[in-house]
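Human: Cast an eye over this sequence-structure pair and say how the chain folds.
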Amino acid sequence: MLCMFSACTNDDNLFPEKYHKILYFKDNGIHNLSFNTTDQSPEDSILIIKAGSDPSLTANVSLKILTSDEVKDAFEESGGANYAIIPSDAYKFSDGQEYKFLKNETYKYAPVVFDPIKIYKAIQTNKNATWVLPIQLSSVSDTINPEKNMILLKFNVKSPTIEWNISDQSQTMLYKTLSVNLSASMKNANLNEWTFTCGLDASENEKLVTAYNDSLGTKYEALPSGSYSFNNFAFSSGKMDANSILTINRGGLQNDHIYLLPLKLSSPSNDAIDKTDSIKYLIISNPKYGTVIPDRGTWKIMFCNSQPDGSASWNSLFYANKILDGDASTHWSSNYGSLTSYDDFRYDFPDFYAFKGVRNCPNIIIVIDMGEERSLCGVGLLEGPDYPGSFDLKSCSFYVSTHFNFKPVKSGGNLSNYNTVNDGNSWNFLINCLNIPQNTTVNWYSLSSTQLDGGVPRGRYLKFIATDSYRAEDLIELTELYVRQVVSVNGNPIN
């Protein structure tokens, strides 16, 4: 019995020396870590275990960071990911990378502190890579469990990001300066806890304009840097949005040229906050003659010598005032049938000077009171889309006058004046509209800058004359009528 006991206690094969103590990671393998750049020094702890048959033994172990080649070999079973190792200054082992286990110590924590901003910036340099920190347990004196000796920390770092709240837009320089409202907002954050600014990056404007023109076949010029100014977006704590104004100055710009300004955000003043790479584009036209489409809300029909006579209830649906109502489903229609040669003035009609008879082109006339004198350079005509098959108006002419007079025959007027409205009026020619397209869009006819140099037509009253029809000479229809008004010359407002 004694011999047998002695033999057993001296047999090292029962507990080989390498198993007297063995070291390993408690949670080996791949671990996903998610941070935000605004996190302050986030920490993760790695648990190292000392086990074996003799807990009283001491041990020494090191944490080794693998190289790119080593991590590919060690973790090739993870799908052949394109691994990239985070920068060495993006993490720190708080207690170092060397650990000594004393007698009866069975575990130790290895805390690691991370810098999310540096990791995030590294990720931005190669977004296709999987960014990791590969850690291996090693020792020159003690046994390491080869099945549990590696940890792969994978990083997903998000950042609050400043995004545009605007789309591409086109603006026109009407006056000496143009103010453009810009807006941006913070994304990837539930609440803005910071105060910071974000501006515009103009360093690549020339390159971006060239690329834009090449892509779309345009010939826009880059807006000169000295022609605009911008107050940086100022984000304040608790606010997710910021607004500012881009001011464009006409000085240094050429008349009738079109400019392009790429809008690219610069890096925010807070390093923990990123900005979008999206670029918005602002197209700026700089015409010599600045124009607008005026509101027609107060405009009135003064005269129409061809419209349904009102004998049927439905006729009122086609009165001349329909061309000013802003409703594309209504329209004016001329009267048609047999011509009359007598006094066809409607003495009972209260809205405007109207007539019962039928007229042919070019004697179909409407006169509009625009409420005030306006300098005009063009007209817009909408036919349809209520009746897309009835595009009757082929050609027409427009005239303007500062005053308007009319007398029916019974008040001493001239019967022939019903077809011209020339008596007592001084009409100045505005524009001819020829071969009007038969479509459902607004067709614009405008005077050129060269034509306007000879004088801008001006008046309060606008005379429309239908000069030709695609069907019968007494049949004209029109849905809406617009004008283009000159409000400035060389950026200077006109009265």
